[in-house]
Amino acid sequence: MRVMLGISGGVDSSVAALLLQEAGYQVEGLFMQNWEEDERSGPCTTDADRKDAVAVCGRLGIPFHARNFAAEYWDGVFEHFLAEYRTGRTPNPDVLCNREIKFKTFLDEARALGAEKIATGHYARVDCKDGRYRLLRAVDTAKDQSYFLHALGQQQLAATLFPLGGMEKPRVREMARAAGLPTHAKKDSTGICFIGERDFRGFLAHYIPARPGEMRTPAGELVGEHQGVMYYTLGQRNGLGIGGRHGAGGEAWYVVGKDVAANVLYVAQGGENRWLYSRRLRSELPSWIDGIAPATRFRCTACTRYRQADQACEVEVTDDGLEVRFDQPQRAVTPGQSVVLYDGEVCLGGAVIAATDAPYGGLLPPFQSSPTHPAGEPQARV
């Protein structure tokens, strides 16, 4: 079988190529360039990564291909990324990149080149039960990436191999070293190529100009000035620039809400303050691995951020999204991020978080009272 591997120039995709080759597949590598450097974005690691990918393919004796998907990435991922930040939300571009680029544009190109399946170095697993494909967590729970893959469907999973899903990361590096792969000691990439190791706020300011405004406590006290509410995320501690204040105590300050229309950033002291907690969220329309929801109402576990421990919850499927009610209060659940649902090791699917019942979970502070938030306290409309 001819398999096109998305080879990134990192150790994971390098070992994925090795494993596929040892399993008897006819392996070829395709390097995806998803970003164009310019004066705003600054340097990216694309050139160095491409050279490493070429070296790995040469070492293994497999064909190398390269394609530039920067235009597709800009239209399908980056413009959405910017639009979300402009509204005050905090998007997760990796989820959209997987759905729109790695398992759509790349898949189409691989088929055009004659491949029957594609493969990547993601830490996840796929199996088929009763004729339906399932996305499973990786054996290495510390590296599991099913969270970022929850928007895939049956067609993508039927065409995909994840060679590393059953391996622990230390073993991956051992195999790379033993095989003499030039990437065996390469540092794992983190974050997004178009941001890399640079200051995130500085990068974003090239596309969304700074708009300074007031930084206030939930009680309305003015405590400082922010550079633009879109640059901050719920639960953020660093970069607030709030010095010691008379009578405020020594606890650190955290972002607890944003009022984009009024350009006000709300902050409170203490990492466990009540303003950060919620028990309910509403999402946008979900994606289901199986193509349909398990039921209109069901119990499962959920993660609202990558590497979060499973949180027990009840899910109700509505006409316009999901209503998720957690058994325990959740900290800093952030609109724009994804809630991903699991049944044990099986990923059911997920959706983008739209709002929560935290005091500022809907991004605007005003709202009705409820048993969770008594009258006089702001509550998000969920």
From TrEMBL:
The feature of type site (Interaction with tRNA) is located at: 122, 337
A Gene Ontology BP annotation from the UniProt entry? tRNA wobble position uridine thiolation
Substrates-to-products reaction catalysed: S-sulfanyl-L-cysteinyl-[protein] + uridine(34) in tRNA + AH2 + ATP = 2-thiouridine(34) in tRNA + L-cysteinyl-[protein] + A + AMP + diphosphate + H(+)
Domain of life according to the entry: Bacteria
Question: Where does this protein hold ATP?
Answer: 6-13, 32, 121
* Active site (record annotation): 97, 193
Extract the NCBIfam families matched here. Answer: PRK00143.1, trmU
Q: Which family does it belong to?
A: Belongs to the MnmA/TRMU family.
Protein name per UniProt? tRNA-specific 2-thiouridylase MnmA
Please report the organism this UniProt entry assigns to the protein.
Answer: Rhodanobacter thiooxydans
List the gene name: mnmA
